[in-house]
Amino acid sequence: MRKISGRDRSVCVGDMAMTSTNSNSFEKFSEKHKQWCECLSGKDIHSISNQVYDLTWGAAVWWILINEPRRYAEQLPEGGVAINPAIHNLIDRWFFESQMAAIRRLITGYSLEGGKGVFSLTALLKDIKDNVHLLTRENILRAGDLPYDYEPIREKHDEFICNSVREGKKSGRIPRELDWSASADRHAFLDRLRGVTETSRNPDDIIRPAIIQNMESHLNKACEKVGRYVNKFVAHAATPESRAGLDQEATNMTFECLQNACRTICEVMSFLEDLLDKCATRSFLGMPLAAHFAYLDRPMIESKNLSLLQTAWDEYAKKIDAWGNYRIEEFVNP
Given a cut of 90, is residue 282 above it in pLDDT? Predict the structure, then answer.
């Protein structure tokens, strides 16, 4: 393995050989890195990771706890299954609309800054792209408290192993300070992002901007249909004239389409976690609640109490109908 030494600041032409000449960039990078990490996986209720976990958890609950049991529901002689259509139609509509709105939130918004700043993948990717010159190999390694030159640590690691063998130690814990693999793995990851080999590494290597652009393209391709549907049918009540340009395919929203968008969002989020060294767990459902299957085998209401629901329905309908009894004075003389 080549020993890494020397830090020549060469400047070449072209995307594959772009380098940074700002020797004071780490402070700026640290500020941006902190902001990006907060946006991506911070504790804020709107961090991207929290949005994504809500999205995937909701999909799992609907697919497994609501849609899957329909396969086992009692079959009716006249066709269909013995489930309440009013309840299940409402659940399905709210599920699809909430999923689509959540996907749209993750792919809209163009700034992390200011009074209109948002936490979204689109805004995060744009900010990273605008500051890609800060994403040097040296800055990324330093932000992760990893040595740029791991060869001396590797030599000490090998020496430790040899001494342990000579002393007859069959096993033992290797001191953390002798772990050179994290730095080596990080270098290898950055090699791929930079498009270079181990022998041509440079401290000022910058990840190729085309990579960020590719992620934006993947997001747009997978989520554009969802975003367009939300704009016309969920977030806004588009007029017939506004909807005239939509074909049948654009209005045919399926669970598979939502899953494809969600999968792409998870892939981009995972890549950004690797880029920012956030040690992602890759468990998008998290730890299931102990009671997530509780009472699924029990009816919501017993047959003997159905008459109480009719009474409650009639009272509610009477209340709602009364809303039409306005007093004209309230509008004429405010």
Answer: no
Domain boundaries, the chain: 18-143+206-300, 149-202
Residues with Cβ < 8 Å from 82, sequence gap 6 or more? 73, 74, 75, 76
Long-range contacts of 230-237 (CB under 8 A, 24+ apart): 230/100, 230/101, 230/103, 230/104, 231/104, 234/97, 234/100, 234/101, 234/104, 235/101, 235/104
Q: Which residue has the higher pLDDT, 313 or 277?
A: 313
Query: What separation in angstroms does the CA of 169 have from each of 126, 156, 159, 163, 205?
Result: 53, 17, 14, 9, 42
CA distance 59 to 71: 17
- Rounded to an integer, the average pLDDT of 91-113 is 94
Q: Distance of CA 71 to CAs 116, 216, 301, 323, Å?
A: 45, 38, 21, 41
List CB contacts of 313: < 8 A, sequence separation 6 or more.
none
Give the tokens for residue 278: 């956030």
Mean pLDDT of the chain, nearest integer: 88
